[in-house]
């Protein structure tokens, strides 16, 4: 099954190899937000490979893109 969008294209325009949780909304174009990510992480349903730098939670860009792709589906016909 073909995915509706190639989320790896988001990485082409992101200036870093990581995304902090508080930047996820900007990275995703408003599709995700900080609180949603925190809730998903707390239940083990967030992107793999997250890590902490000081007080910030971060995600590798490639892992976040893969996770978004896995959670997406086409709508309509």
Give structural notes.
This protein is an alpha+beta fold and 77 residues long. It has one domain. It contains 4 helices and 3 strands. It has helices at 8-12, 24-27, 34-42, 61-71, and strands at 18-20, 51-53, 56-60.
Short key terms for the protein model shown above:
14% strand; 4 helices; 77 residues; alpha+beta
Q: What pattern of helices and strands is seen along the backbone?
A: HEHHEEH
Unreliable residue stretches: none
The chain-level mean pLDDT equals: 91
Largest sheet data: 3 strands, antiparallel
The number of strands is 3
Helix/strand class: alpha+beta
Overall shape: globular
Total number of distinct structural domains:
1
In whole angstroms, the N-to-C terminal distance is 14 Å
> Order of strands side by side in the largest beta sheet?
1-3-2
- Note the total helix count: 4
User: What amount of the residues lies in strands?
Assistant: 5-15%
Helix fraction bin: 25-40%
What assembly state would you assign to the polypeptide chains in this entry? single chain
Radius of gyration: 12 Å
How is the secondary structure organized here?
Blueprint: H1 8-12, E1 18-20, H2 24-27, H3 34-42, E2 51-53, E3 56-60, H4 61-71
Antiparallel strand pairs: 1-3, 2-3
């Amino acid at each position: 099954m073909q995915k509706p969008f190639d989320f790896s294209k988001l990485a082409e325009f992101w200036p870093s190899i990581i995304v902090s949780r508080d930047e996820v909304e900007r990275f995703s174009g408003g599709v995700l937000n900080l609180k949603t990510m925190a809730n998903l992480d707390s239940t083990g349903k967030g992107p793999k490979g997250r890590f902490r730098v000081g007080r910030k939670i971060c995600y590798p860009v490639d892992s976040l893109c893969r996770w978004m792709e896995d959670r997406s589906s086409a709508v309509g016909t």
